[in-house]
Amino acid sequence: MLRRIAAIFLIGFLALAYQAIHPPPPRTCGSSPEGPLITGPRIKLRDGRHIAYKEHGVPREEAKKKIVFLHGFGSSRHDAVIATHLPQGLVEELGVYIVSFDRPGYGESDPDPNRTVKSLALDVEELADKLGMGAKFYVMGFSMGGQAVWGCLKFIPHRLAGATLMTPVVNYWWHNLPLNMTTKAYYKQPKHDQWALRVAHYFPWLTYWWFTQEWFPSSSVVQRNPAVFSNQDLSIVSKFLINRQQQTRENFMNSTRRLNSQTGKSLLHIKIISKYL
């Protein structure tokens, strides 16, 4: 009798554990009852998925430089900082065309359950081809968007005119980085951020659970904790946090999160990248 009770409890525990570590199925934009509405242009990719995009700067046909911008964690195509935070008229003066897009699982882009570092780079290439950006174009990644730039450098270097990383997320275990530098930078982070990276690196199957559990602090970025910023960062950020701008940001941040985003998978890509570069 005791063995049967123990077996029932074990089965129940395993069922709860499985549910805790596996994200719910994604909600496809425009076709799922609970999914967000389609509000902007999208392209259809080779595998039937859709990618939402937004254009900035001069018309493509008149552009001297064409850039694909990749947004960061918990953001969307609307947060193309190089198009929205430069002095007014500079982009037009330089003749730059910029296209930002919702990475798979963000905003109004369909999730990609089989996403890899390579597939995301191929999505960038196909987006550029569908929009007629020519044989070569530039890529620019902001924060976690930088991991997609690494993928582009690895898998589609023949299509790139140049690549830029803006405050990219770092893989502290990348063997090509100086150990003394990565160790020092790693331990400058808050303790809970160190643990978040350890979980993603050593126990990737626990990543979803770690970032959704409420027992321990998971990540400064996920919780929007200013502890992640340096004093210099805070002095700059404070200039942008006026009410109207903050409300606008909240609107599209909430829109971004209506989909079951694949941010946990993005964290895994930081580890996977080290295998390729």
From TrEMBL:
Gene3D superfamilies: alpha/beta hydrolase (3.40.50.1820). InterPro entries: AB_hydrolase_1 (IPR000073), AB_hydrolase_fold (IPR029058). It holds the Pfam family Abhydrolase_6. Residues 1-20 form the signal peptide. Residues 67-216 form the AB hydrolase-1 domain. Coiled coil: none annotated. Keywords: Signal. This is AB hydrolase-1 domain-containing protein.
